[in-house]
Amino acid sequence: MIRVIVVDDHDLLREGVTACLNGYDDIEVVGTAHNGETAIERAVDLEPDVVVMDLVMPGAGGVAAIEELTRVTPSVRVLALTSFTDTSLVRAALEAGAASLQLKSVSGDDLAASIRLTASGQSALDPTVTRMIATEKDLLRDLTDREREVADLLASGLSNAEIADALYLSIYTVKNHVSNILMKFQVHSRTELVALILSDRYSGPAVRPGLGRGGRPRRDTSS
């Protein structure tokens, strides 16, 4: 059972999301909150798997709450939920530590699916969000062949340890490659990076052949 806290300052929306999620057999809303401060208190007390966090609320707001949540309860995953398609707000939420981000227009089934992905350690980003944080520049051309391989496996959801195993590299080498890719893409988190890689801006075969589909590469001892 996935334990969830729903945070929104609008009573009707908070209650509606709660009722919707409680309709799924594998999801249980264990608490709700009307602001970020209360959300942090509830998360500490109730130890949920996922917090569904509204981004725009009175007081400190959702972004500040996400940042504090990831500090005091690092095991809790945050799915940001917003009706505002503002690039700076989206980036701020991801940089603060949100694992996933969906728009409030999301369907109940898609929200439930996003919560499941978030709880499992993956990220779920609305396609609109991936387009927002993508840029027109072909950043992949600035990657080395090895960095492209690492980016491919990142987009497939592999951890650093799994990438190291797949490419027969040390985990320290993989961490260095990931840091270089983040710098070249000018993003601050793996979530934002994966969203950029999977964006349809980079879906053309001439731009990113095979990228995001994963698969174990042939052995190569170079790094």
What does this protein structure show overall?
It is a single chain. The chain is of the alpha/beta class and 223 residues long. It folds into two domains: 2-133, Response regulator (Rossmann fold, 3-Layer(aba) Sandwich), CATH 3.40.50; 139-202, Orthogonal Bundle (Arc Repressor Mutant, subunit A). 48% of the residues lie in helices and 13% in strands. A five-stranded parallel beta sheet has the order 2-1-3-4-5, sandwiched between helices. α2 packs parallel to α3, α3 packs parallel to α4 (87-96) and α8 (160-167) packs across α9 (171-185). Mean pLDDT is 82; it is low at 200-223.
Which stretches of 5+ consecutive residues score pLDDT under 50? Answer: 200-223
The first-to-last residue Cα distance is 41 Å
CATH architectural arrangement of the largest domain: 3-Layer(aba) Sandwich
Query: What is the number of strand segments?
Result: 5
Could you describe the largest sheet, including whether it forms a barrel? 5 strands, parallel
SSE order, one letter for each helix or strand: EHEHEHEHEHHHHHH
CATH topology of the largest domain: Rossmann fold
Number of domains: 2
Radius of gyration: 18 Å
Helix content, binned percent: 40-55%
Indicate the CATH class of the largest domain.
Answer: Alpha Beta
What percent of residues are in strands? 5-15%
Helix tally? 10
Largest beta sheet: strand ordering: 2-1-3-4-5
Mean pLDDT rating? 82
